[in-house]
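Friendly challenge for the regulars: who can give me the structure tokens for this chain first? No prize, just bragging rights.
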Amino acid sequence: MIIRMRSAICFLVLLLALGCGAKNPPPLTLEEIPAAMKKSYASARLQTKKNAEAVAKLIEEKQYAVASIQLQGLLQTEGLNDDQRNVTSAALTTINALLAQVVGEAEPAPAGGDAPPPPKVEMNQQDVEAAKAVRQHYIRTK
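First reply, four minutes later:
Bragging rights claimed.
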């Protein structure tokens, strides 16, 4: 089960990193994500802009598990431009790497090797349990 889960995670990270032959989005640190989201979505439709601002606020409040789910949903929004997709993908990669670290699973290094390692973040037991629940939900639904 663990090997299958790690294989699935590696595959998803590889797909996210490689895309459709497109250049990898520049890596973002946790501190850069809120400002990058707000800047990238400044000209988006109102509802999309509000969703992006809500994700930025979740990240500022260190609600990483919820932010991961919201970022996945945001990527499915129709009409995103390349910059918005790149920023959202980079943010999702950073958040998921952080959650994997918290849960105790090792993530492989991104294909380019230029992404910064996820920062060490202190999380209480409730946040760790939330991260585990998000990971399990993701595994069940994908």
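The chain has one domain: 2-141. The mean pLDDT is 78. Your move, everyone else.
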